[in-house]
Amino acid sequence: MTNTRNVSISILLLTVSLALWEAVVRGFDVPVFILPLPSKVAVALYRGLESGRYLGHLKVTLIETILGFVAGSALGFLLGTGVAMNRYVDFLLKWGVIKQKVETSDLITNELIDETNQLDVAKVVAEAKAYRYSR
């Protein structure tokens, strides 16, 4: 009973959202390149699926995603193993130079936020330009 009710509410919410989107875009005459009509998006999606245009792109995207995951995992494993087996890292951990874990609250404090908010934007921009042109 609850599952049927949840599905019905979800479908109703989707329908209302799409109708509102359509009404807002038509009512305010929003340009197509900013926010297209959902009906036109559905037609374009249907035509692309029907013609098979998206299959090639889907294949390339899946291959790139899998290769990126494998490469990132391998690199992370190799770097993690290298750090774990490095004597220098053991020395730094033993003497407390580096910690196992740094809490986010230790990195971003209210003092840092206050100091950042008090920076003179013009001065920061001038320093950035000077640095950029000095290189």
Gyration radius over CA: 27 Å
Count of strand segments? 0
The low-confidence runs, each spanning 5 or more residues with pLDDT under 50, are none
Q: Which outline best applies?
A: extended
Mean pLDDT: 86
Strand count, sense and closure of the main sheet?
Answer: none
Q: State which percent range the strand residues make up.
A: under 5%
What structural class do helix, strand and pairing data support?
mainly alpha
Oligomer: single chain
Helix content: over 70%
- Measure the end-to-end span: 68 Å
Tally of helical runs: 7
Element-level helix/strand string = HHHHHHH
Describe the structure using short key phrases.
single chain; 135 residues; mainly alpha
Describe this structure in words.
With 135 residues, this protein is an all-alpha fold. It has a domain at 1-51. It contains seven helices and no strands. The model has no long low-confidence stretch (mean pLDDT 86).
Q: What would a concise description of this structure say?
A:
With 135 residues, the protein is mainly α. Helix content is 79%, strand content 0%. The model has no long low-confidence stretch (mean pLDDT 86).
Secondary-structure blueprint of this entry?
Layout: H1 2-27, H2 38-51, H3 53-85, H4 87-94, H5 104-107, H6 110-117, H7 121-134
